[in-house]
Write a sequence for this structure.
């Protein structure tokens, strides 16, 4: 079971009768190792949430869904270590999120997501990591009927990170959104909240 009270931001713009949301969850998982080279896992899940909190852009307040939401699906994970200096991993999630008793999908929840990563230690102190994210299309946050607004497009984003570690000193840097993908994770009434385009970062860290 789960219980979540509205956070501070949600209370700032809230319906007069905004209530905490409550959930009931069932998970069934399996994990398998093969020596030190392969780790695989699968998790099947089912959960229902009463009074799920959402933002209503028409009323400009946070409210509770009148209908119970139900999510069923599976999460698959695979980790590979073919050689000591290379680590591969990927994760796939299928999430069928619908309003209970209806044939409409919960807005802002993609049906499919896929992530992968490659960690490669080029030389002993230098680690290079490439990560990719693929997200399926989803319904607009205002579209509980599933036909009022255009869907939010699917997208794919790739990131690259370098980490150099020498004793207690660490230098790092990277590129987010390597291919300068223009995408949005959230939209209400076809007003899109776009994510950052290609951007760079760097830093140093020293541990005492």
């Amino acid at each position: 079971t789960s219980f979540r009270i509205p956070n501070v931001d949600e209370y700032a713009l809230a319906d007069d009768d905004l209530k905490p949301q409550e959930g009931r969850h069932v998970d069934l998982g399996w994990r398998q190792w093969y020596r030190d080279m392969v780790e695989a896992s699968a998790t099947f899940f089912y959960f229902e949430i009463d009074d799920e909190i959402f933002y209503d852009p028409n009323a400009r307040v946070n409210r509770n869904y009148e209908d119970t939401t139900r999510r069923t699906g599976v999460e698959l994970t695979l980790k590979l270590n073919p050689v000591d200096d290379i680590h591969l991993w990927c994760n796939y999630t299928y999430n069928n999120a619908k309003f209970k008793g209806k044939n409409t999908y919960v807005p802002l929840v993609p049906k499919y997501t896929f992530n992968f990563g490659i960690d490669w230690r080029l030389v002993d102190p230098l680690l290079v990591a490439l990560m990719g994210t693929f997200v399926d299309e989803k319904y607009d946050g205002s579209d509980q009927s599933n036909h009022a607004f255009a869907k939010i497009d699917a997208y794919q984003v790739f990131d690259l990170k370098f980490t150099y570690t020498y004793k207690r000193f660490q230098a790092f840097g990277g590129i987010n959104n390597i291919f300068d993908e223009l995408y949005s994770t959230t939209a209400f009434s076809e007003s899109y909240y776009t994510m950052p385009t290609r951007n760079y970062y760097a830093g140093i860290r020293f541990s005492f």
Observations:
- The mean pLDDT is 94.
- DSSP finds one helix and 14 strands in the chain.
- Helices lie at 8-12.
- Residues 55 and 62 are 4 Å apart (CA to CA).
